[in-house]
Specification:
Order of helices and strands: HHHHHHHH
Structural class: mainly alpha
Number of helices: 8
Shape: globular
Number of strands: 0
Largest sheet: none
């Protein structure tokens, strides 16, 4: 029997930002991303498919296991354990995108992963440090999403399509509205719509509530445009080629 009161599950002080364990997680994210992308480009086909499925399984098992641990500890709650934080939802989307490679799911994984999850890696809202289970769970999920985004778009070259920014704005606004309704019903703080992360984040520079929400909108759109920018030239060339062949 697993002893949930054992060392890896005991409560700890919050993660120290940019301390050794935080920096180790960031380095792991960078190295894992480089390895996955380089390997997928060098050995496409069966290896890339196997790697994608393995990463999808990791993301799903990691999230479901977290729920199981919360239930076992009597800590599961409607106000914070639903998959209504961007990174939680992105983990499930990324897993399905890795398995199916559907263009819309790849776009969501890419934009949410690089615009949102990387910020959560830089300023994690995490109240547990190494060697807590929750330290490993948090960073496995977030690193997995970033690796999935880069593997799909750069390694497997499933690039965002024309109109991806408009689609992502609509999807993100819809998801935020759903999270806002859940916040009202449960008293939670999904998507940080009612208060900022206690650990500090980029939102600290955007004023008090609700100003930081309004300020975050143009910033989010700007990040989407920046992430989509590398693919504009290729899409224009494809469009020109199609027009000439027609």
């Amino acid at each position: 029997m697993l002893n949930l009161s054992g060392a890896i599950f005991h409560d700890q002080s919050p993660l120290k930002l940019y301390g050794p364990t935080h920096l180790a997680a960031i380095v792991t994210m960078v190295v894992a991303s480089l390895v996955y992308v380089a390997a997928a480009r060098a050995w496409p086909g069966k290896w890339a498919s196997a790697a994608a499925w393995a990463l999808a399984a990791l993301l799903l098992v990691n999230e479901v296991a977290w729920w199981g641990v919360l239930v076992a500890r009597g800590e599961w709650g409607w106000d914070y354990a639903l998959p209504l934080y961007l990174c939680d939802a992105a983990g499930f989307v990324a897993a399905v995108a890795l398995a199916t490679r559907r263009p819309l799911l790849v776009e969501i994984t890419y934009f949410w992963g690089l615009a949102g999850t990387i910020q959560a890696m830089i300023t994690p809202d995490l109240h547990y440090d190494f060697p807590s289970y929750f330290y490993f769970q948090y960073f496995a999920q977030h690193i997995g999403i970033v690796v999935a985004a880069l593997l799909l778009v750069i390694g497997l070259q499933i690039q965002p399509r024309k109109g991806s920014i408009q689609r992502m704005v609509a999807i993100t606004v819809g998801f935020s509205a759903m999270a806002g309704v859940a916040d009202i019903i449960t008293g939670g703080n999904y998507m940080y719509l009612h208060r900022k992360p206690s650990s500090g984040s980029l939102l600290d520079y955007m004023g008090p509530w609700p100003l930081y929400i309004a300020a975050g909108v143009p910033l989010a759109v700007g990040l989407l445009v920046l992430l989509d920018l590398p693919f504009w030239r290729g899409r224009r060339g494809l469009a020109s080629g199609s027009a000439r062949s027609g």
